[in-house]
Design a protein that fits this description.
heterodimer, A: mainly beta, 6-stranded mixed sheet, 4-stranded antiparallel sheet, 12 strands, about 0% helix, B: mainly beta, 7-stranded mixed sheet, about 55% strand
Chain lengths: ~120, ~110
């Protein structure tokens, strides 16, 4: 079974600084999908960024980018120019190829605090 | 225009009661899910349905019974509620084909007293 590990229960960063959240995963598949979701205090699960394992290029969405290291099974999220609105729980998630009804396997999350 | 909607958003009830949470999606997706988020924020899949058919049934007490009247709806009924059932329950949907993200509802916070 796939597992997703987020080793940082909590991270703190100054507003406008850059922060990197770590995620590692374990799978025997060669093709799969990885995601970062954000959960603010409102509780809503919001997709931040996604990465297809067959793509070598790291995904980027505005201030959010990933460092995908397939051989190391590592998928970190970098947030540049941190803003107060970035404060949230961040979850790394895995979905196997042609995942069908398998859904996502989540890590335990990292609580990101933004210091003004 | 909410893509995945759940009702109720909050539910407070006594131990031993029976309650239901309803979920509807208007995205035309084939697959729907129930996830449970515990007090430590861990998200774990409970059930998935594809076009009204149960696909995944994780190790969940049989007091939990999902029902899918059609592919746009997936309800969760819980019998004989226990204190440990207190959690946030998320409904989600996705297309079956491909491996895109899941679209989540806003969650339903269940508190059992």
């Amino acid at each position: 079974a796939q597992t997703v590990t987020q080793s940082q229960p909590e991270m703190s960063v100054q507003e406008a600084e850059t922060v990197t959240l770590s995620c590692t995963y374990d799978t025997s598949e060669s093709d799969y999908y990885l995601f970062w979701y954000k959960q603010p205090p409102s509780r809503q699960m919001i997709l931040v960024i996604r990465q297809e394992a067959y793509k070598q290029q790291n995904a980027t969405e505005n201030r959010f980018s990933v460092n995908f290291q397939k051989a190391a099974k590592s998928f970190s999220l970098k947030i540049s120019d941190s803003q107060l609105g970035d404060a949230a729980m961040y979850f790394c998630a895995y979905r196997r190829p042609r995942g069908g009804a398998d859904g996502l396997t989540f890590g335990k999350g990292t609580h990101l605090i933004i210091q003004p | 225009d909410t893509a995945v909607s759940q009702t109720p958003k909050y539910l407070v009830t006594q131990m031993g009661n029976d309650k239901s949470i309803k979920c509807e999606q208007n995205l035309g997706h084939d697959t729907m899910y129930w996830y449970k988020q515990d007090s430590k924020k861990f998200l774990k899949i409970m059930f998935s349905y594809n076009n009204k058919e149960l696909i995944i049934n994780e190790t969940v007490p049989n007091r939990f019974s999902p029902k899918s009247p059609d592919k746009a709806h997936l309800n969760l009924h819980i019998n004989s509620l226990e204190l440990g059932d207190s959690a946030v329950y998320f409904c989600a949907s996705s297309p079956l084909a491909g491996a895109g993200e899941l679209f989540f509802g806003e969650g339903s916070r269940l508190t059992v007293l």
